[in-house]
Each structure stands twice: as C-alpha cells, then as structure tokens.
Write a structure and sequence with these properties.
Shape of chain B: globular
Number of strands of chain B: 10
Distance between the termini of chain B: 33 Å
CATH architecture of the domain at 1-69 and 190-235 in chain B: 3-Layer(aba) Sandwich
Largest interface: A-B, 28 and 42 residues
Helix content of chain B: 25-40%
CATH class of the domain at 1-69 and 190-235 in chain B: Alpha Beta
Number of helices of chain A: 13
Number of domains of chain A: 1
Largest sheet of chain A: none
Strand content of chain A: under 5%
CATH class of chain A: Mainly Alpha
Structural class of chain A: mainly alpha
CATH superfamily of the domain at 1-69 and 190-235 in chain B: P-loop containing nucleotide triphosphate hydrolases
Radius of gyration of chain A: 21 Å
Strand order of the largest sheet of chain B: 6-7-8-3-9-10
Order of helices and strands of chain B: EEEHEEHEHHHEHEHEEHH
Structural class of chain B: alpha/beta
Shape of chain A: globular
Helix content of chain A: over 70%
Oligomer: heterodimer
CATH architecture of chain A: Orthogonal Bundle
CATH topology of the domain at 1-69 and 190-235 in chain B: Rossmann fold
Largest sheet of chain B: 6 strands, mixed
Strand content of chain B: 25-35%
Mean pLDDT of chain B: 91
Chain lengths: 348, 235
C-alpha cells in the first residue's frame, strides 16, 4: 500500500537574501571570538589578562548553563560547583599521570560530565524551583566537601595534600606551547571556540530538535519517538563536560586552586549571567560570561567590596527577566538585520 | 487493526474507562462521545501514557502492554494531541524532522519521507518557515505530517479539526480520506464535529462515561436514538 517510490516533487530550497546559514554562524563564532581575543592578547597584561582568561572559563560554564535552560528549560544552580569538580578531577589526574595538557582537559571534561549526569538525575522527575533548589544544595554540598578535602597539590595519597607548611606544593604545569600568560590566554580562547562550536552543532541537529520537543511537551516528545531520559541525560553530560573543561583550564591558569573559589553564590551568579546574556544564541553566553567575571574584577580594581557585585547581578536579573532575549539576543538580532540589509543592497 | 479487550482504567475512585471492548477494523474509524466520556483516556492507553488496571490493547495483533510510548512509536503507532504542539523555534521541516530523526530507517529515507509528508499536506512551500510564523491550519497540518513519517500502522488524531473554519475543515477531510491508501495506515479520529466524522469515518465507536455506548457503521451509529440522546442531546 505504501508507495515510497512515488514521491511528491522535492521541495525547492530557496535561500532568502541575508539568511544566516549554519556555515555562516560557525564563521561568525570563530571570527568574533578570534578578533576579540587577539585584541585582548595585544592590549591586556597581568591582572586583566588573568581576568580575561578566567572570564573565558566563565563563558564555558555559562554555555553549559544556557544549554540546559535554553534548550530544556531546566534551572541548574550547580554549574560553578561542576567547574570545581572538573578542576579537582583534572588536578588529581595530572598529579598521578603527568599527561599532555589536552588529555588533562579531556579527563576533567569527561569526569565532570559523568558527575553532571548524576547531579542531573533529579531533573528526570522535577523542574523549575524544585530542581533549582536541589542543584543549589548540591553546590553547597560540594563546597563543604572541597573545603575539607581541598584540591590535590601533588602530595601523597588519593587527596594529594602536603604538610601544613605548604612548601612542597607542586603546581600544575601549563603546556610548553602555552606557558606564557598571553599564549595561555590564546590557548583558552581556542578551546572556548571549539566548545561553543560543539554546542552549536548539537543545537542545530538531532539532539537539538529532540530537546526542543521535550521543552515543548514531554508526552508529545515521547509520541515522536524521543527517548526523553536519554536526551535529558545527554544535555546534562554536555553541560557538565563544558564545566569540566573550564575547571581544567582554571587549574592550568593558576597551577593550584583554593576551595574558597567555589562558593554556591558563584553558581547563582552564573545563572543570572546566563539570563543576562541570553540563552538562545551562543553570543549570549559569551558576553554573559565576560560580564560575570568582569564586574567583580572591576569592583576589586576600584577597591569596592566584591559583594556589591551581587547587588548588581540582582538588579541585572530584573532587566533580564523583562527582556528574555538578553544582550546576546539583542546584538544577534541587530547583526542579522544589518547582514540582511547588506546582502539586499549587494543583490540589487 | 486496533483491538481493545475488557479495558478498565481507574484514577482513584473514577473509572474513565470501564470494561471497554471493541476492534477497529475499518481504514478510518471515529471515536466520539460527550466530554469526559474517556476518548482521550483511550488514546492515552493506546499510546502508553496511561496504564490500565485491567484488559489489553493490541495493534495488528502485537500486544502493546508493557511497551514504552517510544517503543509503540517504533511499532507503528502515531498520535496527535488535543492542543497543537508545533515547536515555535523550529521550522516546519525541522518539526517533522524531529520525529524522522528517531524512526526513519536512514537519512535518505528521512529526507524522502519528510518531502512526501510536506507535499501531502501541501506545505512544501512553507517548509523553511518557523513554527511561530505558521497559522493554526498550517500547524495542524504539520502535526498530521509528523504522523506520516516512518511507515505508520495506526494514526490516532485527537480533534485535528478543532479551531478550523469550514473551508479548512473541507481540506482536512479531503486529506484524511487519502491517508489509509497513500500511507498504508489506519486512522482513528476523535472529533466533536459530527459532520466530519460522518463524512470520513466508516466505523464509529461511541463512549459515554467510560462505557461503550455503540459501535458499528457510522451512519447507523449516529442515527441510533440512544447515541443521539447521550451525545447529541434531544434532536
């Protein structure tokens, strides 16, 4: 009865003038980040270069957060704790094996990805406020745990701690090709580009479509053949991977990490930054991440208590809730309009 | 062929379906009844969202009991929902591709099936339009197109004509009547529009308070005085 051979005429795919093709989007990702990073590498040094490197780690964490919230509507408030998990795993692995740096990054990413998937389990049953609370408690639990165990510094045993004097601490070495601060910053920028492209490729293909159906209606997604649990777990794994990579990059930046840098408030600030930047476009997490690191850094530079930053983010959240596309969304819409206009003029 | 045997569903003290028996054999079947009669509950049992306390359902002699909703999709069952659920951020084509991703045999099959489904609902020219820019009729058509992917065996449509005007309902009717022959699938249609049911359904099942009120050739079922009293009111 089915006549698959007798297909109706294939649809004519006509490109609109100024349409943003996937290739064009990838070109935009690479060129925007490369130009900005190149400029920073030329101009910034010392304190600010270190802050920009950290900002890119925030960008990775925010990209994962935006993925969960934008694609699935899931509020995760443990993203910065996952960065800590990735950092711990990569430091632990580094001090055991002394592998090439990119292997350390991958191990940190994969490790945090597995933990992120486990932490995401509550999301199979709950969402909204309840999921937010559970993930926030996980972030709190991580802080407690890491305060007790601290990050490995090359000592003996599984925890890798050294004596109270701390004189035998071994920092994690950066790769030979990126040992200077500027080279390391460019290396982090390169990894950031790769990770953003990885997420973008997901969003524009099979998993992205499955996530879109799940967000719309889980029953409808199931009735469309989507294995909801699998695709939710995949989103958490990917988001955890990005956080883990960010953790490994942070560990490489400082050589060793302090438990005090992984407070649950940072995870909340990351979520606010995610909303502020916008969750539907890659540029949102990029700009949001830079802002999230930058406002506290500026405050420190002006000798203002960094907690004032929390007040700023609270106020910014009001704005973000009023305009859900975020700064990234606004800029992207503007860029698309300009591009369409440019193409139309060139066509006529 | 959809077979229902002594099907009972219980939610607390309520029995949305009570010892329901029946077998849909005609290529296009109707399922009608007043609000709360159990029509959507029956669809939910068939698609695996509601587990019955007793009884069984089968699709072409495959017992569906214990199969997850996604397994049932793989077995050839398709459905739409009462409210339309086209994703705003995906294009018309991507909305259809989202189901093809999981059930088409290969990428080439997926492309062919999507093109064929879009052509069938006459939306080929709107393939690259975002969901949010489609009108209600187009959205309903996209939902039907989704059910035509991957060699469906049975398609359950929950009020596909809701909110459509007269000329749109005419187009819908014309398309529905072609589905069994062109796609080899059996169609089960829930709708409140008695004219639509009368004009496309060969057999019709009438439910009332979870019980079978009548089942048989559509015309005689609709003319049955018992059905008219329960469903259509006094006429």
């Amino acid at each position: 009865m089915t006549e698959l051979g007798k297909t109706e005429a294939l649809p004519i795919v006509r490109r609109r003038a100024g349409e943003i093709t996937p290739t064009l989007r990838y070109v935009a990702i690479v060129s925007v980040i490369a130009v900005i990073s190149g400029f920073i590498a030329l101009v910034a040094g010392g304190y600010w270069l270190s802050n920009f490197t950290q900002a890119y780690c925030f960008v990775l964490a925010l990209t994962g957060c935006a993925l969960l919230y934008g694609q699935l509507g899931l509020v995760s408030l443990c993203q910065w704790a996952l960065v800590g998990v990735g950092a711990w795993i990569s430091l632990r692995f580094y001090h055991f094996v002394h592998p090439p740096f990119f292997v350390t990054i991958l191990v940190g990413g994969v490790g945090a990805s597995a933990i992120g998937m486990i932490w995401g389990l509550p999301a199979l049953r709950m969402r909204g406020l309840y999921l937010a609370l559970v993930t926030l408690m996980l972030a709190g639990a991580f802080q407690t745990l890491i305060t007790v165990t601290s990050f490995p510094v090359g000592g003996p045993g599984f925890l890798g701690q050294v004596g109270a004097s701390g004189n035998d601490r071994v920092p994690m070495a950066r790769p030979i090709y990126a040992s200077s601060d500027t080279a390391y910053f460019l290396f982090v920028a390169f990894v950031t580009i790769l990770c953003i492209i990885l997420v973008e490729a997901h969003r524009r293909s099979k998993p992205g479509r499955a996530w879109a159906l799940i967000r719309k209606n889980e029953q409808m997604a199931q009735a469309s053949g989507v294995r909801v649990v699998f695709y939710k777990a995949w989103a958490f794994a990917l988001s955890g991977f990005l956080a883990g990579v960010a953790g490994a990059l942070l560990a490489g930046l400082f050589g060793q990490l302090d438990a005090g840098n992984f407070a649950p408030t940072d995870s909340i600030v990351i979520f606010i930054g995610t909303l502020l930047g916008g969750v539907d476009v890659w540029l949102g997490a990029f700009l949001g991440g830079i802002l999230t690191r930058f406002i506290p850094a500026l405050l420190i530079d002006f000798n203002v208590n960094a907690y004032v930053g929390l007040v700023f983010f609270g106020a910014a959240l009001m704005l973000a809730l009023r305009d859900p596309v975020g700064i990234g969304g606004l800029l992207t819409a503007l860029a698309e309009r300009l591009y369409a206009k440019f193409q139309a003029r060139r066509g006529s | 062929m959809i077979k229902i045997e002594s099907l009972t569903v219980q939610f607390g003290g309520v029995r949305p379906l009570d010892a329901l028996e029946g077998e849909f054999t005609a290529p296009i079947c109707g399922l009608i009844g007043p609000n709360g009669a159990g029509k959507t509950t029956l669809l939910n049992v068939l698609s695996g969202f509601v587990t019955p306390v007793k009884g069984s359902v089968a699709l072409n002699d495959i017992a569906l009991r214990g199969l997850s909703p996604t397994r049932r999709v793989a077995a050839g069952l398709r459905r739409t929902f009462q409210q339309e659920l086209v994703v705003d951020e995906l294009t018309a084509r991507e909305n259809i591709q989202a189901i093809a991703d999981h059930i088409s045999a290969s990428r080439q099959d997926a492309r062919d099936e999507i093109a064929r489904a879009l052509g069938f609902v006459e939306l080929t020219g709107r393939a690259d339009v975002l969901g949010r820019q489609l009108n209600l009729y187009e959205r309903r058509m996209i939902e039907i197109a989704k059910t035509l992917i991957g060699r469906p065996k049975a398609i359950l449509l929950d009020e596909p004509g809701a909110g459509l005007n007269e000329s749109e309902t005419d187009r819908l009717r014309r398309l529905l009547m072609q589905i069994p022959e062109r796609f080899g699938a059996q169609l089960v249609l829930i709708d409140h529009d008695a004219d639509l049911i009368a004009s496309v359904c060969i057999e019709t099942m009438v439910l009332d308070f979870g019980k079978l009120l009548a089942f048989g050739p559509t015309r005689s079922v609709l003319d049955d005085p018992v059905v008219r009293r329960a469903y259509l009111g006094t006429m």
